[in-house]
Amino acid sequence: MMFVWREAFAGLRRNLTMSIAMVITTAISLGLLGAGLLAVRTIDRTEDLYYSLIAVQVALDEPTSADDRDCSSPVCTGLRGELEANPLVASVEYESRDDAFARFQRIYAGQSILQLVRPQSLPATLRVTMADPLRGEEIVTQYTGRPGVRNVVDQRSTVADLFSFLGSVRNATFGLAVVQALAALLLISNTIQLSAFTRRTEVGIMRLVGASRWYTQVPFLIEAVVTGVVGAVLATGGLVLGKIFFLDRLMSGRLLANTIPPIGMSDVLGYVGPVLVVVGAVIATATGYVTLRLYVRT
Amino acid sequence: MIRLENVSKVYPTSARPALDDVSVEVERGEFAFLIGPSGSGKSTLLRLLIREDVPSSGTVWVANWNVGGLAGRRVPRLRQRMGCVFQDFRLLPNKTVAENVAFALEVIGKPRHTIRTVVPEVLDLVNLAGKADRMPSELSGGEAQRVAIARAFVNRPLVLLADEPTGNLDPETSAGIMTLLERINRTGTTVVMATHDRQIVDSMRRRVVELSAGRLARDDNRGVYGVAR
């Protein structure tokens, strides 16, 4: 078995420049795949996070907002009772104008917008938590225009923009990963053919003295697998660096802090890394096998 | 040991068959020359014996193997019991003499300690014990061919096939190679040697199988190269 490994590494050394190109292309492809996987994971988590927080806001009209501190007016009680009886609704909370203003002050503490907003511009609302967050639109149609209601907003539609942004990040990285993967596959296939060609005398002699086809071809497969695994390791390293030097800085900035759940080191090393190693090894092996079957008749 | 029954081989690119209904038998331990002009089918016959090719019709037997009908994955087993020597030696240029011989054992998965004892023995047999660490480029033609023979013989094959082994060598060196092949034959190994070399055939007085245009032209037990062309 030693022999086979020695041959494989001799092969990688012999076509050193090709081997390097092969590893780099594989690494980029797998790195993009990894980035895509991380995006998917972030999207899932963001959805979990937001779906537990978001609600449908039924804003009440000016008279109710101005006078009702605890939803005791007939209009408010009526709406609340009706909403609580609705099977789509999990729970209903009343937020008076004063409560809303207090929350507003908390959220935008220290920002200039505070100077512009008076309590009068904020309505009292019934915060409706949905049993199924995806069906908020139904509450919107049912309650828009009802007496005492100013407007109804499904917060999900606001968050949807964020999701669609994350979704396009994911799609773009996956798309690039596929293109790069194609380049990597062709390079691996090409290198194996080249490697087999440069070693045809040796392989011919091996066959002559009774080496099995398997035995003569395993070194080429190992070359491919080593490429895939080394590429995956480099890709994982790249993702770690990307996380430390790019993502962590971006996430700590004002815009995205606390908006998107952060990606942890365990996501990169514990989840994406192993996935990439397996994917890299499997794809490289498959490419190697198919190449040997189709193009290398020794 | 070797038996051909009505063997024909037609290559798709050629109108005339390379072998045409050839039947011949070589006993265990025999030494047989295979002669005939270029293109008479000698190399084709040897290729059929090691399953480089399959016959178009007829049956090729080596030991108890029906060579033509052998499944691809069984071919290595056949070749492990056969040694091959060629006019162009076919040594690996980047390996030493000892490594070239060891290669034949490595690729069939022999343990390292076996290789370490067997390789010097066989190098001794071919009188190259002192040149184990030379590279093939440092060897004379005769020495290179002796390495090739050592490699073919190191696994103690049932049959040694030699395709023009003296084709590139001067008469004196050729005689040395023949002595070596005879010595190997005396260990019980069947030897089949394809050759053009009239002088060698005439001096050995061994069995001569002559092919002409793919057909069996002559089979003499103690033959000479012959005069009639």
From TrEMBL, chain A:
Membrane-spanning residues: 20-40, 174-198, 218-247, 268-292
Localization of this protein: Cell membrane
Family matches, as Pfam families: FtsX, FtsX_ECD
Domain ABC3 transporter permease C-terminal: 176-283
Domain of life: Bacteria
Membrane-protein topology: Multi-pass membrane protein
Main location: membrane
Keywords of this entry: Cell cycle, Cell division, Cell membrane, Membrane, Transmembrane, Transmembrane helix
Domain (FtsX extracellular): residue spans on this chain: 69-152
NCBIfam families: FtsX_actino
Subunit architecture: Forms a membrane-associated complex with FtsE.
Role this protein plays: Part of the ABC transporter FtsEX involved in cellular division.
Family: Belongs to the ABC-4 integral membrane protein family. FtsX subfamily.
Protein name: Cell division protein FtsX
Origin species: Actinomycetospora chibensis
Lineage: Bacteria, Bacillati, Actinomycetota, Actinomycetes, Pseudonocardiales
Gene (UniProt): ftsX
UniProtKB/TrEMBL annotation, chain B:
Keywords: ATP-binding, Cell cycle, Cell division, Cell membrane, Membrane, Nucleotide-binding
The keyword Signal is annotated on this UniProt entry: no
Keyword Cell cycle (UniProt): yes
GO terms assigned for molecular function: ATP binding
Topological category with respect to the lipid bilayer: Peripheral membrane protein
Compartments where located: Cell membrane
Family note: Belongs to the ABC transporter superfamily.
Subunit structure: Homodimer. Forms a membrane-associated complex with FtsX.
Role this protein plays: Part of the ABC transporter FtsEX involved in cellular division.
Protein name according to UniProt: Cell division ATP-binding protein FtsE
Organism: Actinomycetospora chibensis
Lineage of origin: Bacteria, Bacillati, Actinomycetota, Actinomycetes, Pseudonocardiales
